[in-house]
Here is the input.
Amino acid sequence: MDMYDDLEAKDPEIEMIVTAMDALRKGGIRSLRFPTTLESKFDEYYFTNTLKHIQVSLLTGLLLFAVFGIVDLQLPPADRMHVWFMRYVVVCPTIAAGLAFTFVSRLRRFIQPVVAFVMLAGSLGIVGMVYFDPTPNQNYYYSGILLLIMGAFTFVSLKFWYAISWSLVTTLAYEVIAVFVNHTSAITLEQNTFTIGGAIIIGAFSNYLMENFLRRDFLNSILLKHENQKLQQASRELRLLSISDALTGLGNRRHFDSMLNHEWMRAMRTETPISLIMFDVDCFKLYNDSYGHQAGDACLRMVADAIGGFARRPGDTAARFGGEEFVLLLPGDDIDQAASVAELCREAVESLKIPHGHSTVSSVVTVSAGVASMVPGSDTSSKVLVASADRSLYQAKREGRNRVVPVGCTSMGMDVHQAHVVSCPT
Ligand code: GH3
Ligand code: MG
Ligand code: MG
Here is the structure.
């Protein structure tokens, strides 16, 4: 099974890529053309991956063309001047201009036709030399055409259709000069034509393979990018799932533990206070018993929303501690600030006005809260903070529920002295 089979087929771009990949695997010249949108992306990719290569090959071609002027020394001076004119006034400057062009990034989309044009200048230059060749069978420069065919198909990274078009024009130009102008002997012409044809077939095959593989490479790079994005998204979702409570959407216990650890260390470093509020829904068992478990779940969601709205700053963490207990971690807040937030939460839950006909403290759903605050020292553990908040919560329950008890303080919300210590009958 391929990695492609695994991709969901619904994404049209991916479908297009999979089809193109299949076509490239099956082979054939038509596979060397993607649908327009993909093709223009491939152009960009091709350009980026072949630019250096093209520059090196043009520079090498320029040097070779210049150095090959040495072979012209065999010619009589008058003929040599013609050839040198072709070589140094026409072809070399054209190659140099083409090379310079490759450095102009905003014209990069024309790089293929420009390289094809430079190659054409080179091949027509050699055909010109064939024309001026003073040797008896005018075959002195013919091998240059073979060299250029090799270069065009493999060295300069021309795309298949550019290389094919170039080779046809070059061959035609050579044949016209050889047949109609130079009247090259039949035996030489036949030999040369077959060799050119053979070189083109071999060159075209190599060029086709290179482009085919480069296209596959391009498609693979998109697929890999796509897979990567999907994996990243899945891992983000998984992480979110692993730290959130399924019922309320708040952080879960694991998230709370890790945030507490993190913020505890930070508070220790910065020597700032960190506060924890622990909430517990009052008489919730009775709520469940009277309204049913589903209504109980809906009630927990509303309470969680109300409390979660008070985690406002980075580092503030609202989480479900378990059952009908919630926590709000407030790094940077001291006991007074945290007690005020706890009181606001208590009021927020009360003002939801969720009817609770069987509560012993109110006609609506209420929460009790225990608040603790510490500046962590190196010898204290965050467990101490949780334990103190828990103790305060227990005290709030004992003092009559629907109230906030900061550690070591008397309760807020309801006057502690008027509160009856009641317990929910279970
Ligand atoms: P107190 O005021 O002393 O806190 O009394 P309480 O009835 O709230 O406390 P208790 O510990 O006796 O009961 C807690 C109840 O919360 C019992 C359990 O069925 C209920 N509960 C815990 N988790 C869930 C939940 O996810 N959904 C629902 N619907 N009920 C839950
Ligand atoms: Mg409880
Ligand atoms: Mg309770």
